[in-house]
Amino acid sequence: MKPERWEQIKDLFGLALEREPSQRVAFLQEACSDEETRAEVESLLASHEMAESAEILLNPCRLLSRNLSQTVRPPSWDAASVPIR
Question: C-alpha distances in angstroms, 7 versus 12, 70, 83?
């Protein structure tokens, strides 16, 4: 594959990932210049989705931890706010 073609496919793949899965087919039909390019990008998207599914199945604790760290912030401890008895 020529480097220019790979760049085109990689760019389309990135743009497709920015869209909701339900919008990707319409985007690719409009954005791809030919069926071969569209099929290549669709193949990358399918592989990406399978990799995400495999991560959930093989390592759910890491995924849960990552999601929690993005949503739950531990309280900040300030020595001055802790009562001394």
Answer: 9, 32, 60
Look up the pTM and report it: 0.62
How many other CB atoms are found less than 10 A from the CB of residue 8?
17
Q: How far is Cα 42 from Cα 38, in angstroms, rounded to an integer?
A: 6
Is it the case that residue 80 has pLDDT exceeding 90? no
Q: What is d(CA 54, CA 68) in angstroms, rounded to the nearest whole number?
A: 19
Q: Which residue has the tokens 């690719």?
A: 28
Residue 69 three-state SS = helix
User: How is residue 69 written in tokens?
Assistant: 């760290």
Confidence of residue 71 (pLDDT cuts 50, 70, 90): low
